[in-house]
């Protein structure tokens, strides 16, 4: 059973904050969403379901995250582009998104949308845009209008198909699989990361901060094996 906490590294110390009951009542997201940075970041990189990167990449990095988690958003905005540039785009690492939904209703709304986008090969576009325009926890920020704006910023994206797929057995199964994986690996906070050889088992990582540099030694070591 996952615990409703999120973890951040501040000044070298791990601070764990309860998120249950947090947030306000007024959505805080913008009315329109710009997707140019996301499109440029992910251009030409293959996506399949929850995975980003080449199937034959030697190393897999799994990210366990709640799309409402502010620290997950911080990591996505600051570290994710560097990981994509240095490891995913060159074909060294394949990333796998394993979404959780413990903070509140907006978590599940966003997660179902992201996984539905994955059925169109666009999960990482949706995730990056959701983090780039993340609202205050449990404020009701994941509205139909907001998701429509996110969809409009993703080239070739079918919003109506995604909305239909949100409650599909495929999305239910993806959510269940991610939750089971988190339980097996002992994930208790977000963001958390696990890594390993693509054809082997993943191990939960202990990272020192929400930066790309905190992950690079592990990725480089796995690539050197």
Architecture blueprint of SSEs:
Layout: E1 5-10, E2 13-18, H1 36-42, E3 47-48, E4 51-52, E5 59-66, H2 70-78, H3 80-88, E6 93-100, H4 105-118, H5 123-132, H6 144-152, H7 159-165, H8 169-185, E7 192-197, E8 203-204, H9 216-224
Q: If you had to describe this structure to a student in words, what would you say it looks like?
A:
With 225 residues, the chain is α+β, with helices and mostly antiparallel strands. 40% of the residues lie in helices and 18% in strands. The chain is built from 9 helices and 8 strands. It has helices spanning 36-42, 70-78, 80-88, 105-118, 123-132, 144-152, 159-165, 169-185, 216-224, and strands spanning 5-10, 13-18, 47-48, 51-52, 59-66, 93-100, 192-197, 203-204. The strands form 2 sheets. The chain has a 6-stranded mixed beta sheet. Strands 1-2 form a two-stranded antiparallel sheet. Strand 1 and strand 2 (13-18) form a beta hairpin. Helix 4 (105-118) runs antiparallel to helix 5. The longest helix has 17 residues, at 169-185. The termini are far apart. 45% of the residues are buried.
Q: Runs with pLDDT <50, length 5+?
A: 1-25
Distance between the amino and carboxyl termini: 34 Å
Strand order of the largest sheet: 3-4-6-5-7-8
Shape: globular
Notable characteristics:
single chain, 225 residues, alpha+beta, six-stranded mixed sheet, two-stranded antiparallel ribbon, disordered N terminus
């Amino acid at each position: 059973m996952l615990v409703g906490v999120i973890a951040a590294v501040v000044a070298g110390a791990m601070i764990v904050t309860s998120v249950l009951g947090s947030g306000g009542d007024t959505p805080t997201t913008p009315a329109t969403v710009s997707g140019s940075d996301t499109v440029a970041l992910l251009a030409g990189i293959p996506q399949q379901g929850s995975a980003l990167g080449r199937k034959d990449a030697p190393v897999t990095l799994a990210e366990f995250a709640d799309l409402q988690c502010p620290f997950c958003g911080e990591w996505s905005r600051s570290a994710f582009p560097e990981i994509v540039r240095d490891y995913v785009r060159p074909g060294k690492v394949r990333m796998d998104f394993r979404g959780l939904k413990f903070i509140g209703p907006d978590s599940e709304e966003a997660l179902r949308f992201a996984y539905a986008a994955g059925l169109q090969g666009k999960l990482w576009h949706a995730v990056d845009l959701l983090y780039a325009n993340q609202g205050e926890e449990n404020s009701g920020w994941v509205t139909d209008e907001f998701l429509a704006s996110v969809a409009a910023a993703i080239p070739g994206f079918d919003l109506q198909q995604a909305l239909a797929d949100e409650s599909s057995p495929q999305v239910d199964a993806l959510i269940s699989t991610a939750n089971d994986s988190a339980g097996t690996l002992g994930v208790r906070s977000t963001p958390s990361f696990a890594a390993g050889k693509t054809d082997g088992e993943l191990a939960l990582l202990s990272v020192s901060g929400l930066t790309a540099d905190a992950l690079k030694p592990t990725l480089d070591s796995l690539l050197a094996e």
